[in-house]
Amino acid sequence: MKKTYMLDELDCANCGLKMEDAIRKIEGVKSVAISFMTQKITLEAEDQDFDRILKEAAKVCRKIEPDCRIVI
Fold first, then answer.
1. How far is it, in rounded angstroms, from Cα 39 to Cα 45?
2. Burial track 29-51 (b if 16+ CB lie within 10 A, e otherwise)
3. Predicted confidence band at 9 (pLDDT cuts at 50, 70, 90)?
4. 3-class DSSP state for residue 44?
């Protein structure tokens, strides 16, 4: 499953790259792409693991940039 979500309060392109690298390391992630220009994240993972991975990705985003959140 591949889904795209809006990112709220992503203030820095470098932070977006850090988030992308950290999310890519989450077990089960097939691919991830964060666009600072469009303020979007595209996440691909298996259907059965998607909700868990999305929650972990949201935690990663908040850890790197505390004001950033994934708009679901």
1. 20
2. beebebeeeebbbebebeeebbe
3. very high
4. strand
Going by pLDDT thresholds of 50, 70 and 90, the confidence category of residue 13 is: very high
Q: What are phi and psi of 5, to 5 degrees?
A: -130, 155
pLDDT tens digit sequence for 27-66: 999 999 999 999 999 999 999 999 999 999 999 999 999 9
Tokens, residue 18: 């850090």
* Tally of CB atoms within 10 A around 6: 13
Pair 61, 17: CB distance under 8 Å: no
As a whole number of angstroms, the distance between CA 12 and CA 39 comes to: 10
Tokens of 64: 């790197």
